[in-house]
Amino acid sequence: MKKIVLLAAAGMFSTMLHAQEAFTLNGKIDDLGEPAKVILMYAFDGKRVTDTAELKAGAFSFSGKINKPIQAVITVVKSSANPRMNFGMGYGGEIIGRDGCSFYLDKGNITLNGKTIKESTIKGSAAQDDYAVLQKARKPVVDKLTAISDEMKQYATDREGEAYKNLYAKLIATMKENGPVDNAFVLSHPNSWVSFNVVTGKSIISNPKETEESYKKLNAALRNTKDGKEFEERLKIAYTTAIGATAPDFAQNNTEGVPVSLASLKGKYVLIDFWASWCGPCRAENPNVKLAYDKFKGKNFEILAVSLDDKKDAWIKAIADDGLPWLHVSDLQGWKNVVAQLYNVRAVPQNWLIDPNGKIIAANMRGKELEERLAKELH
């Protein structure tokens, strides 16, 4: 097997430091009739592991060491396929664009059997058994999200139109329906690493109080791990940027190298908007932000956008291409952006709305939500 270890992307949680234990994964799917490789990917010890095995007559095998149950992705790449072809993940964690699936690696012997990877049955991983229960519980919401997403495709060329915007708003609202499903799973599986990941794995902690309540429902053994202690530190930071808190002040240089501070905008409603030129969802959201800005820019409202770019040219080009006339700052340090760390930003787009007194009054608004909130505040 050929194993490659890469630095983990921002937002990946670290693994706890205790004895590593071995795992084996033996799989069997239908013979593809041509050479193919199976790729296994997972995060381990703060790094991203990509392991490759030859598919021979439909059979493959992996082995390694982990120190806790870890969510992984396994896919097949045929010799006739473009090895660089992209694949995505659906609303239920399903793989799109390749034959593959997401599942939980665990210590011991794991087997995967089926006509294809997608249709396979995975045995030997207790965490995977829990994950299957969660996926089944989420399926009604996932089906609704998929249907809405499919409907949106017909309006993809007119994202400024009401039909697309209404469906987008419906999509965002439907996503929130997973909350009660996840909470019920955590409550019934307090000893599961799957529950731990449901609670702590979110890149955005929108409501630290609710998140802490869910976290405390987990078994003490999980909470006392290295991962648990690190998450508790994230929670502390999340409270400093929660609704009702005073937004932490900061200053960074604009595109001309001149410092711009949040404090200099006190007395105005300010949207702190974290984004990046390379972030597809950010660029897709920019038209919604622009509509709100154009409507309220003369009514004591300003936007201070913090970019997680590391290349100035790409940052400036994206501002021009998307026509974003508001304030822009960055230290061009990518995910290590000092302001992003101050606000515990692990995913973009992410935003906070600040009132004239510097208090946070809303966060992570999408679609029409910003415009609707500003209409209430600036009527």
Automatic annotation (TrEMBL):
Domain Thioredoxin: 241-379
A GO cellular component annotation in the UniProt record: cell envelope
CDD domains given in the database record: TlpA_like_family
Protein's cellular compartments: Cell envelope
A single MF term (Gene Ontology): antioxidant activity
InterPro entries: AhpC/TSA (IPR000866), DUF4369 (IPR025380), Thioredoxin-like_sf (IPR036249), Thioredoxin_CS (IPR017937), Thioredoxin_domain (IPR013766), Thioredoxin_ResA/DsbE_sf (IPR050553)
Signal peptide (UniProt feature, chain positions): 1-19
Keywords of this entry: Cytochrome c-type biogenesis, Disulfide bond, Redox-active center, Signal
Protein name from the UniProt record: Peroxiredoxin
Organism: Chitinophaga niabensis
